[in-house]
Design brief:
InterPro entries: Biofilm_reg_signaling (IPR052155), EAL_dom (IPR001633), EAL_sf (IPR035919), GGDEF_dom (IPR000160), Nucleotide_cyclase (IPR029787), PAS (IPR000014), PAS-like_dom_sf (IPR035965), Rev_trsase/Diguanyl_cyclase (IPR043128). Helix content is 47%, strand content 22%. Strand 27, helix 25 and strand 28 form a beta-alpha-beta unit. It has four domains: 112 residues, 2-Layer Sandwich (Beta-Lactamase); 108 residues, Beta-Lactamase (2-Layer Sandwich), CATH 3.30.450.20; 157 residues, 2-Layer Sandwich (Alpha-Beta Plaits), CATH 3.30.70.270; 230 residues, Alpha-Beta Barrel (TIM Barrel), CATH 3.20.20. The protein is built from 26 helices and 28 strands. With 713 residues, the chain is of the alpha+beta class. The strands form six sheets. It has an eight-stranded mixed beta barrel, surrounded by four helices. Strands 4-3-7-6-5 form a five-stranded antiparallel beta sheet.
């Protein structure tokens, strides 16, 4: 019964027996220990699950449930292992059936040995399972999601695979050295590039040993190994890339590039640049040399000249500006292949003419060459070289059993008398060349100050002439042509006129040769042809229009098309157009020109040979190319009072009659001249007696009035 306190009558608690107290303390300690264990298990970074000998779950942590996405309400202590597997199948996390999964794990459970294996879940995750048996039966399993780890390992393997593939397939050789200067990577291309074996350069080889080995094998030309090692160390210290060319004993060139690595050590690449270097050298050569002849070009010549003049103590020198004479005739006769062969042959002869190794001959383009003669003792030495060149080029050039005859004109400027800078010397040499060509060609001329004024005047004329057509400063006059027997006007000749605001009316003899030399005659002649045909379209039917044609136009290539276009545009029949050519057109016997003339003649267009009798081989031209008309030059008509001249005129008229060629007399100014021509059977006349050159409107009124009188009788 309870014990009562004698003083206040309260009940005094009784002390528990000592055994009971000890049991209570043990329970508390066990509870605390279980709580600490549960906390430790729950806070593990891996999943954990413990099973007893009956394969029932004792405990699991949240990570286990999360890894397998298990329902915590179902997966509780006491649940059988197979049921957990079935639950994982039901929720779709397992990649196999429960029986298959259990069959995999059963051997590990039965053997009661520690083991580790992996399971891949249906969502692709990889779980590492560490199985550990318990002494009292059962087991504990640790589950770790190693998906990212496996992915990282796979990425690393792929990176290694790609690195190995890149090394194996690089076009460059590669070596990698670690921070201690020992080789740690070497690709196959390096071995192939230097034709060596892996045994020659084993991993662990030092940079110095590698260089010495390349020398020992006779691969490198002599190099300073100490210097190369020092350069590498300097490159590493400065953390900068360094490249250098290595010249191999077999003639190849290898570009070696050293690149420091951030973690220490460096990478060396080896690139066979033999072809690239050769290409670069060829490009440099092409940039400074003419591709056809191999001679220095304008750029290189100017560079050499500038260098020579930069020297304060520059010795005397002479500049020769050269231009081939009759070169275009070669192209017109035999075409571009002959051109090219001839230019190369000229280049060879010019080089043989030089006496000093420092002298330079260059091709500036086309048939234009330039020579720089060093250490010239003035005019005398320059003249000797000019004569050698003229004599060398004057000799026939024989190719494929054909002889080509050309000449050469030379202009010479001497330093320092004719200029102290390159531009002045070249300009003055060109000026002297112009004088040589204007005085008959195949000549040489030294520069004289007075020449400059002449050239400037000529160039000013060229500038004005080039601007004249866009400014519409050209016009056509028309001079009538009469049939002598009937007295009827049968047509008119178109004559070009230039009315310059600055120069006034410029005579055709002053500007036509310049237009021909500059090529301006081509567009100018096309304009004249169109305008003449357009004017003739309004004339009475049957009247002919005569238009002068330059040799340059015929050689331009598109002349036939421009004639056909002018006829089509104006509506003038081909039989009413007469093209007047001079003997110079036929002199070169150009295949292109003769073919064009025949094409036009086949269309019905008439061809007239102008200024007949003033050339050297007029009769020969008539034999090689039959024309429809010959025009006796006005110089013969003017001098017909002279017995000999009159005999020549009668002969030309008789020749025309015999050949069935119409003969027209130019420059008829008196009745006496007309009577003489009529008496000798000349068919047509043209000149001031017949009619002066008139504007298109005036000639139209004249022709219509004549036609009207003819009709009314």
């Amino acid at each position: 019964m309870p014990v009562v306190d004698v003083k206040d009558g309260s009940i005094v608690p009784q002390r528990a027996p000592e055994g009971v107290e000890r049991s209570r303390r043990m329970e508390d300690e066990l509870r605390e220990q279980n709580e600490r264990f549960s906390a430790a298990v729950e806070n593990m970074s891996h999943g954990l699950c413990m099973f007893d000998a009956d394969e029932r779950m004792i405990i699991c942590n949240g990570n286990y449930l999360n890894i397998f996405c298990l329902d915590a309400k179902l997966v509780r202590p006491g649940i059988r292992f197979i049921d957990i597997l079935r639950h994982s199948v039901d929720i779709g996390i397992a990649s196999q059936s429960a029986d298959e999964l259990y069959a995999i794990r059963k051997p590990y459970i039965d053997q009661a040995k520690p083991s580790t294996y992996e399971e891949t879940l249906s969502d692709g995750r990889i779980i590492n399972i560490s199985h550990r048996p318990l002494a009292v039966g059962g087991w504990v399993s640790i589950y770790e999601d190693i998906t990212e780890q496996r992915r990282a390992e796979q990425d690393l393997k792929e990176q290694h695979r790609r690195f190995d593939a890149a090394l194996a397939n690089m076009s460059q050789g590669l070596l990698m050295y670690d921070a201690d200067g020992r080789m740690i990577v070497r690709n196959r291309r390096f071995l192939e590039l230097y034709n060596v074996t892996a045994g020659d350069f084993p991993l662990g080889t030092t940079h110095r040993d590698a260089l010495e080995k390349l020398l020992e094998l006779g691969i490198y030309q002599k190099i300073d190994v100490d210097s190369e090692v020092a350069k590498t160390e300097a490159c590493l210290a400065a953390a900068k890339m360094h490249s250098a060319y290595r010249y191999l004993t077999d003639g190849r060139t290898v570009l070696v590039t050293r690149q420091p690595m951030s973690g220490g050590g460096w990478v060396v690449t080896f690139d066979d640049v033999t072809e690239r270097r050769r290409t670069e050298e060829r490009m440099i050569h092409l940039a400074h040399h003419d591709t056809l002849t191999g001679l220095p070009n304008r750029s290189m010549f100017r560079e050499r000249l500038d260098q020579a003049l930069e020297d304060a103590a520059a010795p005397p020198l002479a500049i020769f500006s050269l231009d081939l004479d009759r070169f275009k005739a070669i192209n017109d006769t035999w075409g571009h292949p002959a051109d090219d062969w001839l230019l190369k042959s000229v280049a060879e002869r010019l080089q043989r003419c030089l006496r000093n190794e420092t002298d330079v001959v260059a091709r500036f383009g086309g048939d234009e060459f330039v020579v720089m003669q060093f250490n010239s003792r003035g005019v005398a030495d320059a003249e000797k070289l000019a004569k050698r060149i003229a004599e060398a080029i004057a000799k026939p050039f024989r190719d494929r059993s054909r002889d080509m005859h050309i000449g050469i004109s030379l202009g010479i400027a001497v330093f320092p008398e004719d200029g102290r800078d390159a531009d002045t010397l070249l300009k003055n040499a060109d000026t002297a060349l112009y004088r040589a060509k204007s005085e008959g060609r195949n000549l040489y001329r030294f520069f004289e100050p007075a020449m400059d004024a002449i050239v400037q005047a000529r160039r000013a004329l060229e500038v004005d002439l080039e601007a004249a057509q866009p400014r519409q400063e050209f016009d056509l006059d028309f001079q009538p042509i009469m049939n002598i027997a009937s007295g009827e006007i049968i047509g008119a000749e178109a004559l070009m006129r230039w009315h310059s605001p600055a120069r006034g009316t410029v005579a055709p003899d002053a500007f036509i040769p310049v237009a021909e030399e500059t090529g301006l005659i081509v567009p100018l002649g096309e304009w004249a042809l169109r305008k003449a045909c357009a004017a003739a379209a309004s004339w009475p039917p049957g009247l002919r229009i005569a238009v002068n044609v330059s040799a340059v136009q015929l050689k331009s290539g598109g002349f036939a098309r421009s004639v056909i276009s002018a006829l089509a545009f104006s509506g003038v029949p081909a039989g009413q157009l007469e093209l007047e050519i001079t003997e110079t057109v036929l002199m070169d016997e150009s295949k292109t020109v003769l073919k064009t003339l025949r094409q036009l003649r086949d269309l019905g267009i008439r061809i007239a040979l102008d200024d007949f009798g003033t050339g050297y081989s007029s009769l020969g031209y008539l034999r090689r190319f039959p024309v429809d008309k010959i025009k006796i030059d006005r110089s013969f008509i003017r001098d017909m009072s002279n017995r000999d001249t009159a005999a020549i005129v009668r002969t030309i008229i008789g020749l025309g009659n015999e050949l069935g060629i119409v003969v027209t007399a130019e420059g008829v100014e008196t009745e006496a001249q007309l009577d003489m021509l009529r008496d000798n059977g000349c068919e047509e006349a043209q000149g001031y007696l017949i009619g002066i050159p008139s504007k298109a409107a005036d000639i139209q009124r004249l022709l219509k009035a004549r036609a009207l009188r003819s009709q009314t009788g």
